[in-house]
């Protein structure tokens, strides 16, 4: 018989058992060890499913106060259910006849034996349901937790061995589809399944957030036919076009069914949709999407990359969309099972005016810019290249230059009007965008994580987002469904801790009202974060991680970010505790912190180390500023800024005869190079093929290079704010000029001043 290896008990059940033992009428300290052991076993299995359609496992012994108690299991039936004799990892398998023709009702008895030979017993009522394959409708109508047996052809596989977070399968028969979620075995490496095989699945029926599924950890899979059969998608074109909305029964009823919708129009992807993996299409009055999930998707990572690239280059095209029906918040969408889930057919013919109007509508520019950046500005239409686009800006902090909008954060927040002129043939139209350019940081700050919060005291709420290289502070606003952040501490709200029964709440004051951060169940089984005057949750303090947590719907949650996200969302605490190495690498918990303004000063390096990174800076006394190399050119010279955070990290690399110095940009090494740009003339450039070799001038603590017959250093003179190449004699012939009219550039480290 096929072994069902998934355990019926989990860590949560074990913890629940401990709690249950503490709720006995007789205090634990008055019970003997044998009774405690029996209570433990009782608590572990009393809530296990009564129906046992597959093999399952039970423990062979338990320990109470470091004393071992052996457990012998038996059943009161002669056939159909037997208890194994082999113990593996303290587990014994109860072997069940999964294909019994009649229902088997039995009692499972545990006999607990102490070291003195005394025994205690506890029993559990079980039954093995009669084996019967269900129709699709019977599967849909089956009650929660009941055992179901379904059969169908595999249309999609999601496996951990393919980079997914869970092992799942889509399959279907002639009437509808089935979703098998969270299998205990890998469908590719363990079960050897392939798309097109016919399989039989036995497991517990569940519904999660409106999605029908065979529940996590319960599926037993049997290959019926290993010959692969291609499944023809059902044509849902008319159903989609005629549906009154995306929750129409005609769309969502047959979940997990492979369908195609023909003649859809590809919709331009927004930044928000890109983050969520939504690839939208429309037909008639309805717009839906194909979703690439970050946790479960049948496509490989390479297939996902190809899919996204093709989608981006086909905005406005007519296509056929194919995928399995999925439901989110009761609404229809598709999950792709092949990389060609969109089959691009044609680009609609349009007049000059229609092309201009289309491109005008589909132009997108970020509404907010929070850091120095370069934004690509299209010179032609994204779909119709006949449309020419030119751009103008009304503010110096956002300049149009060479097909890019180059933004430098100003001293104060600034509204920029960016105008696009679109032209095709004799048709010309304009579109204006208003961009909010954030103010540059007014100071540097040091954050300190709070080990234990004090009620009534105010803190900032922040996370070190190492993927973005920033400390992000909660601003007191929502960004969609998540808490909004800024990398500027001055924009952070003051969060006050309030003691309540069972823990804490946290609020900030806005318009004279207390606004609380609240973790809540927004739909069945789904947890999110909100800002509200009437909070529902109570935070507890996790001392080990120094973060607030909330226990809700049987799980513990925290607030933070993961991967490259800059907002704070709700996540399960297990993502931190199951893999502590992920903290600060892919998982970034939010902490209560104190913030202190610090002044950074540049300390010149007297003896540089190979492989170490430094800032490159000059003390420009004429301007009264310390200027840092920013990693860019300003004409023929190195550009600088008086803000330390804008200075790039320059790394020394040992080569024959001395050093070279580089910084990383777009994953490539870019070198600072002094070179002979014309006979006898030396200048500075940024290049990936350097020629100069620097040697260290210990007397001046600066790097120098022999170029064009002379020794050169990098620095500035008089009132200039850029770094240029100059002959060393300007420093050595008149040492008194150093710091007065000649300002050499130094490798520096930043320290609190």
Structural notes for this entry:
The chain folds into six domains: 11-128, Immunoglobulin-like; 136-225, OB fold (Dihydrolipoamide Acetyltransferase, E2P) (Beta Barrel), CATH 2.40.50.140; 234-346, Nucleic acid-binding proteins (OB fold (Dihydrolipoamide Acetyltransferase, E2P), Beta Barrel); 352-437, Immunoglobulin-like (Sandwich), CATH 2.60.40; 444-598, Trefoil (Trefoil (Acidic Fibroblast Growth Factor, subunit A)), CATH 2.80.10.50; 600-752, Trefoil (Trefoil (Acidic Fibroblast Growth Factor, subunit A)), CATH 2.80.10. It is 10% helix and 48% strand. Strands 28, 29, 30, 31, 32, 33, 34, 35 and 41 form a nine-stranded antiparallel beta sheet that branches. It is globular, with a radius of gyration of 33 Å. The termini are far apart.
Counted beta strands: 55
Provide the CATH top-level class of the largest domain.
Answer: Mainly Beta
What integer value in Å does the Rg equal? 33 Å
Provide the β-strand percentage band: over 45%
User: Number of helical segments?
Assistant: 10
Within the CATH hierarchy, at the fold level, what is the topology of the largest domain?
Answer: Trefoil (Acidic Fibroblast Growth Factor, subunit A)
Detail the poorly predicted runs: 1-25
CATH architecture of the largest domain: Trefoil
Q: Which percent bin holds the helix content?
A: 10-25%
Largest sheet data: 9 strands, antiparallel
Question: Helices, strands, pairings?
Answer:
Layout: H1 11-21, H2 33-45, E1 56-59, E2 61-64, E3 67-75, E4 81-83, E5 91-96, E6 104-113, E7 119-128, H3 136-141, E8 147-158, E9 168-172, E10 177-180, E11 198-208, E12 211-214, E13 220-225, E14 234-235, H4 237-242, H5 249-252, E15 258-266, H6 271-276, E16 278-283, E17 286-291, H7 301-312, E18 318-328, E19 331-335, E20 342-346, H8 352-362, E21 368-369, E22 373-376, E23 388-393, E24 398-401, E25 404-407, E26 414-424, E27 427-437, E28 444-449, E29 458-465, E30 470-479, E31 482-486, E32 495-500, E33 503-510, E34 513-523, E35 526-532, E36 540-542, E37 547-552, E38 555-562, E39 569-572, H9 574-577, E40 587-589, E41 591-598, E42 600-604, E43 613-620, E44 625-634, E45 637-641, E46 650-655, E47 658-665, E48 668-678, E49 681-687, E50 694-697, E51 702-707, E52 710-717, E53 724-727, H10 729-732, E54 742-744, E55 746-752
Parallel strand pairs: 14-15, 21-27
Antiparallel strand pairs: 1-5, 2-3, 3-6, 4-5, 6-7, 8-9, 8-11, 9-10, 11-12, 11-13, 15-16, 15-18, 16-17, 18-19, 18-20, 22-25, 23-26, 24-25, 26-27, 28-41, 29-30, 29-32, 29-41, 30-31, 32-33, 33-34, 34-35, 36-37, 37-38, 38-39, 38-40, 42-55, 43-44, 43-46, 43-55, 44-45, 46-47, 47-48, 48-49, 50-51, ...
Helix pairs in contact: 1-2
């Amino acid at each position: 018989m096929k072994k069902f290896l998934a355990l019926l008990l989990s860590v949560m059940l074990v913890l629940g058992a401990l709690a249950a033992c503490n709720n006995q009428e007789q205090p634990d300290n008055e019970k003997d060890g044998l009774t405690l052991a029996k209570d433990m076993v009782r608590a572990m299995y009393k809530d296990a499913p009564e129906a046992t359609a597959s093999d399952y496992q039970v423990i062979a012994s338990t320990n109470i106060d470091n004393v071992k108690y052996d457990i012998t299991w038996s059943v009161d039936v002669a056939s159909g259910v037997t208890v194994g004799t082999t113990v593996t990892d303290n587990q014994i398998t109860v072997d069940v006849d999964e294909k019994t023709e009649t229902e088997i009702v039995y009692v499972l008895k545990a006999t607990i034996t102490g070291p003195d030979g005394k025994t205690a017993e506890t029993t559990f009522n079980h039954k093995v349901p009669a084996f019967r394959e269900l129709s699709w409708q019977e599967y849909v109508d089956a009650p929660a937790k009941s055992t179901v047996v379904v059969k169908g052809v595999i249309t999609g596989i999601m496996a951990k061995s393919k980079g997914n977070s869970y092992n799942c399968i889509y399959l279907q028969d002639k009437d509808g589809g089935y979703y098998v979620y969270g299998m205990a075995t890998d469908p590719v490496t363990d079960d050897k399944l392939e798309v097109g095989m016919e399989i039989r699945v036995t497991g517990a029926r569940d519904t999660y957030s409106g999605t029908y599924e065979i529940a996590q950890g319960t599926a037993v899979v049997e290959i019926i036919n290993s010959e692969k059969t291609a499944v023809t998608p059902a044509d849902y074109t008319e159903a989609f076009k005629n549906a009154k909305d995306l929750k129409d029964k005609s769309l969502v009823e047959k979940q997990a069914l492979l369908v195609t919708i023909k003649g859809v129009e590809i919709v331009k992807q927004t930044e928000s949709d890109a983050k969520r993996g939504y690839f939208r299409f429309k037909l008639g009055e309805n717009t839906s999407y194909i979703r690439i999930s970050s946790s479960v998707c049948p496509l490989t990572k390479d297939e996902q990359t190809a899919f996204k690239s093709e989608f981006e280059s086909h905005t406005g095209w007519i296509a056929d969309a194919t995928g399995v029906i999925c439901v989110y918040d009761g609404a229809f969408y598709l999950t792709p099972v092949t990389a060609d889930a969109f089959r691009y057919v044609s680009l609609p013919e349009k007049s000059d005016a229609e092309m201009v109007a289309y491109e005008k509508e589909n132009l997108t520019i970020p509404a907010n810019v929070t850091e120095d950046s370069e934004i690509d500005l299209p010179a032609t239409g994204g779909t119709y290249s006949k449309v020419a686009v030119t751009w103008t800006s009304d503010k110096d902090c956002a300049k149009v230059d060479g097909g890019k909008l180059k933004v430098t954060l100003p001293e104060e927040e600034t509204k920029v009007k960016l105008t696009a002129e679109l032209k095709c043939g004799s048709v010309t139209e304009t579109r204006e965008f208003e961009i909010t350019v954030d103010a540059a940081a007014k100071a540097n700050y040091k954050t300190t994580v709070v080990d234990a919060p004090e009620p009534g005291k105010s803190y900032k709420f922040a996370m070190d987002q190492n993927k973005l290289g920033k400390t992000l502070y909660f601003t007191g606003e929502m960004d969609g469904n998540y808490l909004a952040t800024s990398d500027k501490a001055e924009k952070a709200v003051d969060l006050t801790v309030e003691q309540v029964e069972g823990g804490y709440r946290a609020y900030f004051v806005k318009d004279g009202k207390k606004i609380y951060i609240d973790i809540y169940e927004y739909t069945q089984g789904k947890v999110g974060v909100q800002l509200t005057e009437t909070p529902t949750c109570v935070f507890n303090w996790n001392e080990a991680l120094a973060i607030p947590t909330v226990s809700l719907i049987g799980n513990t949650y925290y607030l933070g970010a993961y991967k490259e996200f800059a907002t704070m969302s709700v996540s399960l605490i297990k993502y931190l505790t199951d893999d502590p190495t992920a903290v600060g690498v892919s998982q970034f918990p939010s902490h209560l912190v104190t913030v202190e303004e610090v002044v950074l000063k540049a300390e010149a390096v007297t003896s540089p180390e190979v492989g170490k990174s430094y800032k490159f800076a000059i003390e420009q006394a004429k301007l009264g500023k310390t200027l840092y190399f920013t990693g860019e050119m300003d004409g023929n010279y190195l550009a600088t800024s008086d803000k330390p955070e804008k200075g790039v990290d320059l790394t020394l690399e040992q080569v024959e005869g001395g050093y070279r110095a580089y910084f990383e940009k777009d994953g490539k090494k870019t070198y600072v190079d002094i070179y002979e740009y014309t006979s006898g003339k030396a200048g500075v450039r940024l290049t990936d093929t350097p020629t100069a070799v620097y040697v260290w001038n210990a007397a001046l603590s600066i790097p120098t290079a022999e170029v064009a017959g002379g020794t050169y250093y990098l620095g500035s003179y008089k009132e200039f704010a850029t770094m240029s190449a100059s002959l060393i004699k300007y420093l050595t012939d008149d040492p008194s000029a150093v710091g007065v009219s000649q300002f050499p550039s130094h490798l520096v480290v930043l320290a609190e001043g």
